[in-house]
Design a protein that fits this description.
The complex is a heterodimer. By secondary structure, chain A is an all-beta fold. In chain A, 0% of the residues lie in helices and 56% in strands. Chain A is globular and about 40 Å long. Chain B is built from no helices and twelve strands. Chain B is globular. Chain B is an all-beta fold. The chains are: A mainly beta, B mainly beta.
Chain lengths: 115, 113
């Protein structure tokens, strides 16, 4: 079974802090994703990576950066956390196929509260 | 631009009854895939079913079926014989010539005894 592991399930951070959300997958997937989930807005893509050191902006990249130094690990960074970044963050991975049928596997989510 | 629309914020269904969750999509790409995911209160996203734009038949997976109407750009999820464990958020999603999925806003389904 594919396993996508997010390092922290629940975090509380202060405004202005630098926050790291870590994600590891164990299935040698090329693609990794960070989504943000908010009530009434569904899941929105923050960043996408299809290879080590490669990244693409998603729909809402402002205020976030990412790092992918190893194939299995994809980190989301909030350089200076703000209260409007309080949300659930979901990491996901999939094979690189560029095709339609490509199931994305998700981690359990990280609930971030910025106070 | 690609878009997924789920117009039902919440749905109720009695146990053992069938329920349809609506999803419409918009894309100019003729090649695309449609997905449904379930998210229980624990937060994990569980893949349920997939439909390709060129698939001739509607997808089925156990109690889940996808009512794909290409001309109307709709991809409704039908859950037959609802169970209490089906209570969750349900998300419709799409990709088109890309590995990135875009999601709708979700429908919260509650199954009552």
């Amino acid at each position: 079974d594919v396993k996508v592991t997010q390092s922290s399930r629940y975090l509380v951070k202060r405004t202005g802090e630098k926050v790291f959300l870590e994600c590891v997958q164990d299935m040698d997937h090329e693609n990794m994703f960070w989504y943000r989930q908010d009530p009434g807005l569904g899941l929105r893509l923050i960043y996408f990576s299809y290879d080590v050191k490669m990244k693409e902006k998603g729909d809402i990249p402002e205020g976030y950066s990412v790092s992918r130094e190893k194939k299995e690990r994809f980190s989301l960074i909030l350089e200076s956390a703000s209260t409007n970044q309080t949300s659930m963050y979901l990491c996901a991975s999939s094979l690189l196929r560029g095709q339609r049928r490509n199931t994305i596997y998700f981690g359990e989510g990280s609930w971030l509260t910025v106070v | 631009a690609q878009k997924i629309t789920q117009t039902q914020p919440g749905m109720f269904v009695q146990e053992k009854e069938a329920v349809t969750l609506d999803c419409t999509y918009d894309t100019s790409d003729p090649s695309y895939g449609l997905f449904w995911y379930k998210q229980p209160s624990s937060g994990e996203m569980i893949f349920l079913i997939y439909q390709g734009s060129y698939d001739q038949q509607n997808a089925t997976e156990g109690r889940y079926s996808l009512n794909f109407q290409k001309a109307r750009k709709s991809a409704n999820l039908v859950i037959s014989a609802s169970q209490l464990g089906d209570s969750a958020m349900y998300f419709c999603a799409m990709n088109a010539n890309t590995d990135k999925l875009i999601f709708g806003t979700g429908t919260r389904l509650q199954v009552f005894p």
